[in-house]
Each structure stands twice: as C-alpha cells, then as structure tokens.
Amino acid sequence: MTAHYFHPHCKTTKKSFTTGRISTAILFSLGTSLLSTLLPATSVAQEDTRTVNSTPTSPTSNKAHHFASEDIFNLEYVSEARVSPDKKQVVYVRRSNDIMSDSTRSNIWLASVDGSKHRPLLSSKHNFYSPRWSPDGKRLAYLSDEEGKPQLYVRWMDTGQTALVTNVTSSPSSITWSPDGKHIAFTMSVDAEEKPLKVNMPKKPKGANWSPSFEYITKARYQADGRGVLEPAYTHIFVVPSQGGTARQLTSGDYHHRGSLSFSHDGAKIYFSANRSSNWEYEPIEADIYTVDMQGNIEQLTSFKGREASPIVSPNGKYVAYERRSDEKVMYKNTYLYVMSADGTEHKNLTETIDNAVSNFVWKDNKNIYFQQSVRGLAQVDSVSLSGKVTNMASGLGGTTLGRPYVFATYHAAGDVIAYTKGATNRPADLYVTSDDERQLTSLNEDVLGHKTLGEVKEIVYKSSIDEEEIQGWYILPPDYDSSKTYPLILEIHGGPNLAYGPVFTAELQRMAVEGYVVFYDNHRGSTGYGERFALLLQGKYSSKYDFADHMSGVDALIEKGIADPEKLYITGGSAGGIASAYAIGLTDRFKAAVVAKPVINWLSKVLTADSGLYQIPFQFPGKPWDNVEHYWKRSPLSLVGNVTTPTMLITGVNDKRTPMSETEQFYQALKIQKVDTVLVKVPESSHGIAAKPSRMIGKVENILAWFKKYSGADETTTPDAP
After folding, report:
1. 27-71+451-601+636-710 in CATH: which number?
2. Is this model's pTM higher than 0.70 or not?
3. How far is CA 221 from the centre of its chain?
4. 104 Cβ partners below 8 Å, 6+ apart?
C-alpha cells in the first residue's frame, strides 16, 4: 500500500485500497451479526514478504495463559481508601465485576496497616461505598443501596451493629462527620417547582388514558450525559443526627452547592463551595467559598475571579486549605493549593512552584498538607508545608480504571500514614500504605492474572516531526513477542484532550496485544502532567496537524525500531481520541482500518447539541460558532471527509449527551456518500461511557478487533464468539 498525506481542506485525488467494501448500508448493533459480517472468507491483500508471522492471531488459537475477554468479568480493583484516626487500619472500597448482572459492585473491606489482617466489612450483592470514619474511629458512616435507593448508614465497629440514618428520596453524597461525631453533613439534590407557563387544560375524565404531559425546558444547561434531560432540581447541604433522625436542609436558593464539605473546628458551621451568582449557568469555571451555620445563615468568604473549591479546615481550626483556578478563557489552567485564615483572609499559594494541577487535600497536621498530582503518566502524593516546602511522599499511583490506561488514582492519610491505590502494567489497583516505607496490603487479581502472560509495556520518548516537541508514549508488545519479527500496530488515542495515559493496567489494550498487535499510545500535546504550557499547545487546535504529527512520529519511531509493520497500521480512539482518529484519516491513508468511537465530527453542531457546549464555546473556541464558522469548521473532521478512503467503524452510545449520536451519524452518512467502507455500531441504552458495563467493555474491544481483522489481509475462516 502506498502511503499518502493530504493537506487539510484541499481537494485531493487518492489511490484506492485493495480491500473489499461493504456495499450495502447496514446498521448493526453489538453482537454476533456484526462480528460474523466483519470477517471475510478470503484474503484480499498480499503479505509483506519482509514480515514474518505479523498477522493478528485467530481467537481460537489463544492459549489459556493469555488474557481473554471473559477475564474482564473477574477483575477487581481498589477505588477508595480511608485511614482510621488511630492510624492502625484502612477501610477501602473493593470494586468487582458481576457476570450475572453485568455490573460493577462496590463492597467495603478492612485491612490493618501492618498487613496482619484483611477481611470483608460490608460485602454482598448490594453496593457499599463512601466509607467515612467517625472522629473517634469507633463508627463508620457509608452509603449503600441495600434497601433500594442509596441511603446513609452508620456501623459501630466494635459490635458490627448498623443503623439506617436517612430515608431520603434522592442520593446523598459528600458525607462528612462533625468534629464531635454527633452529626453528619451531606449534599443532596432537591426538586424545584419551575413551570414557565400557566396552561389551561380541560379536566381529564376519570379513567381516561391521555398522552403524557408536555415537557418544558427553560435552562441553558438542560441536559447531562448519563442523566438525559434534567428535571428542575438544585443540590443543597443537609445535616442529620449521626444516630438517625430527620435530615435538615441548611442551604437555600436556586443554586448548586456541590463538592466536599468541611466543618469548622467547633462544629458551628460548614465550609463549602458554590456559584451563587444569578449568571451561574454561564460561568462553568466560577465558584467561591462560603460557610453555612446550623440555622442556615450563609456567609461568603472568597470572591476571586475563577474557581475556589474543595475547602478543608485544619485540625486546630485556624486555617482552610482550598483549590484555586483562574477564569482565563482557555481549555486548561493549573489548579493550585491555597491556604487562608478561617475567616477568609490572608490567602497564600503553597504550590506556586508546581507546574501541574493539584487536588485532593488532606491536612497531615497543623503545618503540613498532603496533595495529589499527575506527573508524566503517573500520579503521586506530595506534602507541602505552610512555608511552601514540597516533599514527595508516594509515587506510582494509578490503576483505578480497567479499560484504558488513564492516570486515575486516589489516596487518604492520617498523620504520617498514607493509603493509596497503586497498580502496575500487569495489575489493576491494589491497596498500598506508606509511613516509613511502602507496603502492599492487597493482591486482588492474582487468582485471575497470576497465571497469565500479559503484554510487556515499554516506554518510548521521541520528538514530534512538526516542531521537535518531546512526546512521551508507551507500547504494549504481544505476550509471546519475538524481536526478530515485525507486527501490525494499533494506535490508540486518549480522550480529553486534557487527560493523560500512563504505564498502568489496561484490559482493552491488553486484549488487542493478545491478538498479535503492538498497541501504541502516547500523551500528545494537550495532555496533562507535563505542565501548563504543554497542555495549552492545542488551544484552538483540536484536532489539527499538530496532535496528528505527535501520533505519527511515534508510529514512525516504532517502525524504525523494527517493531511495527509499516503496511499494517490501524487507528482507534474514543471521545477526544475519536475526534483525533477521524481527523487523522482525513490527513493520511496510511491506516488499513479505523475505529472512531463516540467522536465529535462537526463542531458547529456539537456545541449546540451536547451537554458541554456552555463550557467549550468560551474556553475552547475564539467565540460563538455563528461568529466563527471557519474556525469551528477547520477543527471538524467532517471538513476532511472528502479525503477519507480508510475503512471506518463508528461506535457510539445511543443515549450519549457528551458527543451525541447525531455527530456519529453525520460522519456515517458522509462516508457512505463517499462510498467508503463503513459500519455504524450503536450501543443500546449507553451514554458516553460505552464501556461502563463489563459486557460493553468486551463488546467494544471485540468489535474493534473484528473490524481490524477484516482488513488485516489474513485468510480468516473463524468467527470469534460474540460477547
């Protein structure tokens, strides 16, 4: 195959591929019909004579010691940890997949810091999560759906007795103990009565069966991915006696009071963050810190431009740590750790010298604060003194996502004991603690992965061909990799784009490696963990020739190393990675096939139909779409569709509100008009997270593999089992 690059937004004559075409417009759902259709009976391309055995393997040839799709149902990981006040125990949330209900279940387990004990605390087919120790460590508050709707419970640790504390109609969150242990604060959504019109309808006769009532939408932000169209409701702060009773609402007004809560030292008031401006819908990066007392009196403490959030009071009550970000209209800004006096005066930036976003603050004592940041593909816990001295405390955190290798992790600390989630390239997150040294407390996946040979993950650092910008990436080798051979390569692009991948476990990419592919992923410009300058290199340029060059330079580096076969390249990515994949196949024909997952195809339509437009228009673009049509169009993969010849699968959730199905359908129809081999896969009942359920994750990766196999040039006669 002769490779071509194309100048964007120019009409280009292109050579055809020798691959077959799907000649009829067929819409497939996930399942056997798609997988069997995608696998050709005969080969349509010649093998590169320079390559030895570089064709993806048949699923039927997989050995028992390789990672299989069904193994995803057996994976577990630690998602949250809490150190007890006496620093002797850690309670954590253990997440496990259930093959019968096709869900991920949360249970609460208890481990001793010295590693001597490890036992279930709350474990069943129900969900138990958000554990919070009482100040004296004798009780544990948590949330559970044990009786249907999520409710707040308290467990006495000495006897195991449990009390149902709330009986509310909405889901509590952000649960926080008062210093004396007598009350628990939480946030909860409260329905609002908002009727824009008084409409006179005739009285419905008794027993009549009329059509549903009309629905009215009046808000600028009227929908949210995973929730659909939003009913009128606002999040408020409540307080309830810790031994049970009536929950009392403290905040008022048509505003959202979300996020973490922190009691004052005397328990008389609660610190929180909110945007209580009448213009709050149009100010996505604006929030201030307030207090509310037990009578509902609200006092504003900060009023800087931008977001002040996540307040946490020092043990002696004198200071409040909080996060702060400016309101500059750009796609990314660092978040800093500030400290102020408890009365809202004397603000000081403690992390001014750190060129990354920091989060998750925990007071170590009255003079030092723990915080979390991501650096070059991994998370870490650091400590900063009130004078600004920073010390690293724990490194290599991650592993709290199973599907793709995102840099997500969490931790908690009490005194000098830090508990955190940490995995490896071959294991999801386990529970670790550190004080003087690091200790691993769990090994949750040895029963599943201990006898498996996974693909080795290697780092690669290279220069982008467009401007010599340094790019960090990783590639996964097939489990039985032979250095004397070259292999087909899959480029997998992360979402965001202001997110990051790292050297952590990834079920989806390991599955690809098992099938004989080298899987390459990188943190292109715009990724986080490399400083604010690097994250802003894509301001007004996503997607573009710049991130495209970052990806292709990595691909070419692996070809030069003799690892990847230049004639067998494939590309995929989801969300922002879907945008980049769709844009890339409009710039080159080097890829034999592409899978574009939940993409934005036309920015002009996306920002006016998705749930994120109110943020993206002012922060990602130079202005409103009707005033900047050319800019929006230039960033849209649809502007390059006339260049595309790469066979393309499109896959999106039917209920996606972040990158709506209408975006995918535009590209599908355009590709069909261009007579490009394409198939549209709709994921039923799914929002943006198409891999949120175990079977969906399996379905996603197996459909990707089936599509790539169809265009691999192999003589395939075996159809993989549908998930």
Report:
1. 3.40.50.1820
2. yes
3. 21
4. 95, 96, 97, 98, 693, 694
